[in-house]
Design brief:
Helix content is 38%, strand content 22%. By secondary structure, the protein is α/β, with parallel strands linked by helices.
Length: 600
């Protein structure tokens, strides 16, 4: 197939009634233009809009022939790839409901999620994942068949679970009663499009029912917020899982709306190379990705010599270039010009040279990371949201970045602070409720307001600052409330500290678990007593942080973590949240010893 460039479109808010209509309307315009790119051993391979549209119709026809109809749930367990997108759209085209699941969950997790959602089928990417999912699918009372995109083994036969390959499914679709894109017009705006399970950091995950209406409302708000970026023919580098509500809305359906080209990166470790190859204009990611990029850039510019290192430090400490320019500060202006040529332009080139903005979401972004990129002239916008809000509530406006805030509410979003300090939001983007759990729905949606569970402040300009999670608030033995998020952000602002978790509920003072930065660990390796060096350096960093904390918030003692908190050791959820209870339980003995030590 010969690929052509997609025509430019006027970036108006989406006007279609459903997500499926949105896709087919854009596919009719895009036709043979590239839509989804995938990286292979031979380079990047493109799938055109028409190719994906044809596959959606074939997939939907096959699923319908196998009994999938409106309202039924179908699970997708796959890495980001074109088949994921085809499956999602095909399920929605039938009026059925897609249930995206993460690929790094356990067989027990899949058993709970398939049964709780009542999934009728499971679509898996490969044999490794299918091996985990198959026993769960067999045990789930409603699950009748499983599709494997890349089968690498012969599955054991089952009396009640049919197993077929993706190629077989598509072949069935080619021989089944055909479907037409106009079938999308039979859907309603208020229909549930997908059920996305929240992280379940402290309890069993709940299935969040997002409608076509709620996700489209999010797209309308995002479209308005990014208007000043002049988005049109964009290249989006995608590697945050599509099972994440953030990537599903902002990383898939928003690019569909603006007819962007989406590049799916198979492995995060290829990010630096991919940025040079793809030259993305927009990239969404979780804060940890920006932490890693920051660390790599710091290493590169330190190695270029003292002058480069000094200018680099100046660039990342300075007020971002979006601030008003003072013409009287000629020396400052001259310095910025040197920094721009020696530091900022090379940084932008290492990031592909075409970035209009990074967009961070899914967890809290450290102010030092935000300052770092914005100081270098690379806009890093921070969003705030939750799955129950489809998921974006607010984003920092380009050109109006207030450090430490999560920006202004999107168009169509009402916000308020409850008497308990909790952020409440209202608008068309709110979920329809939790799947099969009306009681839990009533607990969080009251009189149309979604109670987010996050403590926040709203300043006079409308910018939102998140203070912490309501359920995580620490109340010390003196009855004083302490926000872990606030304290941990101040700790994380220290260059020596990579991660921090504080502890002290019903205790007389606060202690912390600290993960040292990679730089400190590297420096310690060259010392005669590396452990003592790390402890002394972290102690100094905490002393500096304590100067910016109130008396009840100050860290009295700390321990060093055995390893960084991550998804691999199950201390971080798939959406990037710390599993605080698991972390503090793991270190409970050492933490409690700090209080006994203080008594001696």
């Amino acid at each position: 197939m010969i690929l052509h460039k997609a025509p430019a479109i006027t970036m108006k808010p989406p006007e279609e009634e459903t997500l499926v209509e949105l896709f087919f309307a854009r596919a009719a315009i895009g036709e043979s233009a590239p839509f989804i790119w995938e990286r292979t051993s031979k380079g990047w391979h493109a799938h055109s809009w028409q190719d994906i549209a044809d596959k959606v119709l074939h997939c939907a026809a096959a699923l319908r022939a196998r009994g999938i109809s409106a309202g039924m749930r179908v699970a997708i367990i796959s890495e980001n790839r074109h088949e994921w997108v085809v499956s999602d759209l095909a399920i929605m085209l039938l009026g059925a409901i897609s249930v995206p699941l993460f690929t790094n969950q356990t067989g027990t997790d899949y058993g709970y999620l398939l049964e709780q959602s009542g999934a009728r089928a499971a679509i898996c990417s490969n044999a490794k994942i299918a091996y985990q999912v198959e026993p769960a699918a067999q045990a789930a009372p409603n699950c009748l068949f499983m599709v494997v995109m890349n089968p690498g083994k012969i599955f054991r036969p089952s009396l009640r679970l049919a197993t077929l390959t993706w190629a077989e499914l598509m072949d069935e679709g080619g021989h089944a009663k055909p479907l037409h894109p106009d079938h999308a017009t039979t859907l309603r705006r208020q229909d549930v499009a997908c059920i996305i399970y929240n992280s379940g950091a402290t309890q069993a995950p709940k299935g969040v029912m997002l409608t076509h209406k709620s996700i489209l409302a999010n797209l309308i708000g995002v479209n308005e917020r990014f208007r000043d970026l002049h988005l049109n023919k964009e290249r989006v580098l995608s590697f945050l899982p599509l099972s994440h509500a953030y990537e599903h809305s902002v990383g898939l359906f928003y690019p569909i709306h603006m007819m962007a080209e989406i590049y799916y990166l198979p492995r995060p470790e290829l990010l630096s190379t991919a940025m040079q190859e793809v030259k993305p204009t927009i990239m969404t990611a979780v804060p940890r990705v920006f932490d890693v990029l920051k660390e790599r850039l710091e290493v590169v510019f330190r190695q270029r010599g003292p002058l480069s290192a000094m200018l680099f430090a100046r660039a990342t400490r300075e007020i971002p270039p979006t601030s008003p320019f003072n013409p009287n500060r000629l020396l400052h202006w001259a310095e910025r010009q040197i920094i721009k040529r020696v530091i900022s332009l090379p940084v932008r080139n290492r990031l592909g040279g075409s970035l209009k903005a990074f967009i961070s979401g899914g967890a809290t972004l450290s102010p030092k990371v935000s300052q770092f990129f914005n100081g270098l002239g690379v806009p890093l916008l921070q969003g705030y949201g939750l799955t129950e809000a489809s998921p974006v509530v607010s984003v920092t406006p380009p050109g109006n970045i207030k450090q430490g805030t999560v920006g202004l509410p999107l168009k169509g979003a009402e916000v308020k602070i409850s008497g308990e300090g909790e952020l409440c939001v209202k608008g068309d983007f709110i979920m329809a409720g939790y799947w099969d759990d009306p009681a839990a729905t009533r607990q969080v949606i009251k009189r149309g307001w979604l109670h987010t569970g996050d403590l926040a402040e709203i300043d006079e300009d409308g910018h939102i600052t998140i203070l912490g999670v309501k359920r995580d608030m620490i109340v010390n033995s003196g009855g004083e409330n302490i926000s872990p998020l606030r304290v941990e952000m101040i700790l994380n602002a220290q260059p020596a500290i990579s991660q921090a978790i504080i502890y002290g509920d019903s205790r007389p003072f606060i202690v912390a678990i600290i993960t040292p930065s990679a730089d400190i660990i590297k420096l310690a390796a060259g010392k005669s007593d590396p452990d003592n060096y790390i402890v002394k350096t972290i102690s100094d960093a905490i002393q500096t942080a304590n100067a910016n904390l109130g008396t009840p918030e100050r860290i009295r003692h700390f321990i060093i973590s055995d390893e960084a908190f991550s998804g691999e050791n199950n201390f971080v959820t798939p959406t990037g949240e710390f599993r605080r209870k698991q972390i503090t339980n793991h270190y409970s003995g050492r933490l409690e010893a700090l209080y006994h030590k203080s008594k001696r």
